[in-house]
Amino acid sequence: MVQNRKARSSKKRQIGESSTLVVVPGCYDEADRLPKQEFLDYASALEDIVFLFVNDGSKDGTLALLNSAQSSHPEKVQVLDLPLNRGKAEAVRLGMQRSCEIQARYVAFWDADLATPLETIKEFRT
């Protein structure tokens, strides 16, 4: 679930100067289920983590919720918007690809509904 990425050219844009871990939750119609505050609290507690949410063509208020999170914490939350639903696998793949382009050292995917608690991330990092 976590992939180590070697440093890439410094010409590529970084998502945060100290971010070594980018976590990619794919989101489709998650407005009523996405625990936005839990993600923000977790990201704020750790210096080197960023969440890159991929909105997979949601038809509800998911994109607005994600944009709100990004606006309030731009150093911890990024949003990749896919206007059309492309499926979870493709959304996660594109999010992971984007994470590699922005020089994340580690990239992971996560379920937006937190079926696996965020605290579990620590287990993957040790």
Characterization of this structure:
This protein is an alpha/beta fold. It has one domain: Spore Coat Polysaccharide Biosynthesis Protein SpsA, Chain A (Alpha-Beta Complex), CATH 3.90.550. Helices cover 32% and strands 24% of the residues. A five-stranded mixed β-sheet has the order 1-5-2-3-4, sandwiched between helices. Helix 1 links the parallel strand 2 (21-27) and strand 3. It is globular. The chain starts with a strand and ends with a helix. Mean pLDDT is 87; it is low at 1-14.
Task: Furnish the topology, listing elements before pairings.
Blueprint: E1 2-4, E2 21-27, H1 36-45, E3 49-56, H2 62-72, E4 77-82, H3 88-101, E5 106-111, H4 121-125
In short:
The protein is an alpha/beta fold and 126 residues long. It has one domain (2-114): Spore Coat Polysaccharide Biosynthesis Protein SpsA, Chain A (Alpha-Beta Complex).
List keywords for this structure.
single chain; 126 residues; alpha/beta; Spore Coat Polysaccharide Biosynthesis Protein SpsA, Chain A; 5-stranded mixed beta sheet; 4 helices; disordered N terminus; Glyco_trans_2-like; Glycosyltransferase 2-like domain-containing protein; Nucleotide-diphossugar_trans
